[in-house]
Every structure is written in C-alpha cells, then in structure tokens.
Write a structure and sequence with these properties.
Strand content of chain B: under 5%
CATH topology of the domain at 190-388 in chain A: Chloramphenicol Acetyltransferase
Radius of gyration of chain A: 24 Å
Order of helices and strands of chain A: EEEEEEEEHHHEHHEEEEHEHEEEEH
Helix content of chain B: 40-55%
Largest sheet of chain A: 7 strands, mixed
CATH class of the domain at 190-388 in chain A: Alpha Beta
Number of strands of chain A: 18
Oligomer: heterodimer
Order of helices and strands of chain B: HHH
CATH superfamily of the domain at 190-388 in chain A: Chloramphenicol acetyltransferase-like domain
Structural class of chain B: mainly alpha
CATH class of chain B: Mainly Alpha
Number of helices of chain A: 8
CATH architecture of chain B: Orthogonal Bundle
CATH topology of chain B: Non-ribosomal Peptide Synthetase Peptidyl Carrier Protein, Chain A
Number of strands of chain B: 0
CATH architecture of the domain at 190-388 in chain A: 2-Layer Sandwich
Radius of gyration of chain B: 12 Å
Shape of chain B: globular
Helix content of chain A: 25-40%
Chain lengths: ~400, ~80
C-alpha cells in the first residue's frame, strides 16, 4: 500500500486490474485504492510478472503493507509491489503503529491531574480530545502540543466504514486539506510577491487559435498560464522541487500541480508529470484529462504524490487575486486571479486590456524575493509574447 | 425540444458526474449556479459537438448558458443544418 500523502496511514483496496501471471511494466496501473482524495489508480514501480495477489478487494491495509508479489522475469517471486517511489522500502509489513491513545478511560473520573502545556490544553479542547488519553512526552510526562496533534492525527487516520457511494468522503478530504495546510503554515516561512500581467496578446492568440478549431481541439487561456509558468521555472529553477529532507535540491522535472476545486467543496491538486516536455496543446490535453479524471475520481498515485509546484487559478468567475498556501513539501505556489479588462498605460495612452494578477507564494528557506521577482517577471514576459509559447 | 433537453443534460452530467440531472433547473446558470469551470464548459461543448456535429464557435458560448437557452440553440442550429 503506497503512501499517497504524508497524512495517509491506510487505504482500502477496491479493485484489482491484474491477476497472477500478468506481465506488467513500470507505470502500469495495477489496482485502485480508495483514499481521502477519492479512488486512486495505483501504478507499479517495477516491471515483472504478478505472482500473487496478497490483499483482497474490500480490505483496508496500512501504508507499507504488501498488496501483491511481483517476480522479475523468470525469477522466483520475491519483490512486493508496488514500492512507493520516495517512501521507505515496503518489503515487510510494518507492525501497526503503537496506539498512543489509551483505551478510553472508564466512566469513573480520572483521579490525578494531567500535566499539560497551556497550548496543548487549548488545542485538546479545540479538538475535543481528553487530555488524560494523550501520552505526554514532556517533562514529567506532561502533554505537549505536539502530543495532542499526533494523537489527533492518529485517531483521524482510522478508516471509517464508508456508507453511500464509493469515492469521495468530504469530511475525510477536509481533514486531509486541514492537515496539509496546517503543516504548511507551521513549517514553511512563506513570502509573497504580486504582479499584474497584460494578457491581451495571450487572449487574442487563444481566440485566433480556437476560431480555426473544432471544440475538442480548442485551448483555454489557462493552458498558456501553465505553459508560461513551466517555462519560467527553467530560468528560476529554485522554485521547483520538493523540500523533504535537507539540503534542498530543485527538481529537474517540472511536475506541475493544478489545484482543481470540487463542486461539493474541497480541492485536489494532481500534477501534470514532466510538464517541461509539453507544448501548449499537449499541456491543454493533459489539463483536460486531469480535470476529467479528478471529477470522475480516477487519478493515479504518481499524479498526487510527485508534484513539484502548484498553480491555482481562479478561472473566469472569480476575484482579482489569489495568495496561496504552499502545498508541502513543495516550495512555491503560483496563484492567478480572474483575468479582467483593466486600464493600462501603453505607448503613453490609456487602453482597456485584459490583465491578470499573478501572485507567487514561496518558501523563504529555499529562495528570496529577488529570485521570486525574476520568476514572476519572466512569466509576464512570456505571456506578453505568446507566439513563443 | 424535450429530446434536446435530455441530450443536453446527458452531456452535462457526463462532464460533471457530481451533478444530479433531476435537480438541475432550466434556468440554472451553468457557471454561476452549477459551478462549471471553463474546462468543464469546454468539455461540454466538445461533447455536444461530437453528438450533434455542430461547430459551436466560441462566440456562441453564451447561448449555452442555461439548459433552456441551450435547448433553443440546439434546435435552431440543427434545423439550419437540414
């Protein structure tokens, strides 16, 4: 069971797409797992022959538990599948995490006084946790804020029995978003830069391209925003990467996450993998595909675990600007407001032109304002000369 | 017209599987009321193009803003085609 996010502890196998004897190659989708982010297609990270399906459909398995065995071509079966790319080896099933939460205290009221820091008390009260049930790691066994957070995270991770239609559990998704955003605000010292970009030329170009195309070949302005962002990262690569363990090294590949809002509330930010290799039309096709599969709940694990930067765009019916919260362990998020007609001074005259406000939220541990400014200026330059995109 | 309305709703719920056709009002605005984004809307236009063979240029998009408007638009354009 691969980890599909730092907050995930278990997943429910809902479908096998392979059977013993099937040959698979790296990247093949072998199973479907239900998670906080909906049903996720699981890809194998190794090639070989499926020799045994270990997990049964309907079972909930902890992260790291083997789902199946994969034998190398003509070899004795030995390698479990799938091995999550960046995660530790999964060769053995880890013992279930030691529960920190003690069995609920019997109704007879606790006798002693529980030592706890004021922050831990406040947070426990906020979460509805009983302090007596939290194992303290502070002096004299005092409960610290971190203990409360850990206990809360573990009790949340217990997979609830689902009812209703398979797929998204909005309460679970809300918790996943809360955990990621809390971690971001706690760990990442954000800085923000904002720039207004003249999109008139880009908009005109999109209209000209689309006029000659049938609907399924048309592009959206958003595809140009993504393309310009990806190209600008080539000039300022520091902003593209995952800060998982120091020292930070930028990623060569741009796995460009797109924040996709769900109508029921919540959002998912799956990534266009290797976006640096894609032109505008290919980016548009990838965006269509990602949005469609997000809506129908069929994303792949690589798409939700490997993003190196995220773009959040408010689209046509939003507000002026979006100042984002970085999706950890990424180090930057680019927000685009809703493009609008604005008065712009050009050639010493005031003209009405379509403009968009772009906002960079970046991690001050790995970059500074000057680099961030170079990046936004490059995005603007590229969008103002869209023929080169 | 009833058939076109049903066909339109079918394409709409295909690009937005989380919407329930039974609860969509004829005058609900696809973007403002039903929450379609520009990608969903383009996918809807592409679906209608595949189904009816109409080119649906971008200038006509406002005619597809609600189920009622869309049914009228489809009826008129399909009649022109024959």
């Amino acid at each position: 069971m691969p980890s599909l996010g730092a907050d995930m502890e278990a997943g429910k196998l809902v479908e096998w797409l392979v059977k013993p004897g099937d040959r698979v190659k790296k990247g093949d989708v072998v199973a479907v797992v239900e998670t906080q982010k909906g049903a996720i297609e699981i890809e194998t990270f190794e090639a070989g022959e499926i020799t045994e399906l270990i997990a049964e459909v309907g079972q909930t398995q902890p992260v790291g538990a083997p789902l199946a065995r994969l034998g190398a071509e003509g070899e004795a079966p030995s390698i479990p599948v799938p091995a999550p790319a960046p995660a530790p080896a999964v060769a053995k099933t880890p013992a279930p995490p030691q529960p920190v939460v003690k069995a609920p205290a019997p109704p007879s009221a606790p006798t002693g006084v529980t030592l706890a820091s004021p922050a831990a008390r406040a947070r426990a009260a906020e979460l509805g946790l009983v302090l007596e049930n939290v194992a303290g790691s502070g002096p004299g066994g005092a409960v610290l804020l971190a203990d409360v957070e850990q206990t809360a995270a573990q009790s949340q991770a217990k997979p609830p029995e689902r009812q209703g239609k398979a797929g998204l559990d909005m309460a679970e998704m809300r918790r996943a978003i809360a955990a990621a955003m809390r971690r971001s605000k706690r760990e990442i010292p954000h800085y923000y830069l904002t720039h207004e970009i003249d999109l008139q030329a880009a908009q005109d170009r999109v209209a000209a391209i689309n006029a000659a195309r049938m609907p399924d070949q048309r592009i959206l302005l958003a595809a140009l925003l993504v393309r310009a962002t990806v190209l600008a990262l080539a000039k300022v690569p520091d902003l593209n990467g995952r800060f998982e363990a120091g020292p930070y090294t930028p990623s060569a590949a741009v796995h460009c996450g797109l924040a996709i809002a769900l109508r029921g509330g919540g959002l998912i930010a799956p990534a266009i993998l290797d976006a640096q290799t894609l032109g505008v039309d290919a980016i548009m096709a990838a965006m269509r595909d990602l949005v469609a599969r997000t809506r129908s709940g069929r994303l792949r694990n690589s798409e939700i675990t490997q993003g190196t930067i995220t773009i959040s765009s408010l689209g046509e019916t939003g507000v002026d600007a979006l100042t984002g919260v970085i999706y950890p362990p990424q180090v930057a998020l680019v927000g685009f407001g809703t493009p609008r007609l604005k008065p712009v001074v050009r050639d010493s005259t005031v003209q009405a032109r379509v403009c968009v406000t772009a906002t960079l939220a970046a991690d001050h541990r790995v970059s500074d304002g000057r680099r961030g400014a170079q990046f936004l200026a490059e995005v603007a330059r590229l969008l103002e000369e869209p023929e080169a995109l | 017209m009833t058939d076109l309305r049903a066909a339109f709703l079918e394409e709409l719920t295909s690009v937005a599987p989380d919407l329930d056709a039974a609860t969509i009002g004829d005058d609900d605005h696809l973007q403002d009321d039903l929450g379609l984004d520009s990608m969903d809307f383009l996918n809807l236009v592409a679906g209608l193009h595949r189904r009816f063979g109409l080119p649906i240029p971008e200038a006509d998009y406002p005619h597809l803003a609600t189920v009622r408007k869309a049914a009228v638009y489809l009826a008129e354009n399909l009649a022109d085609q024959r």
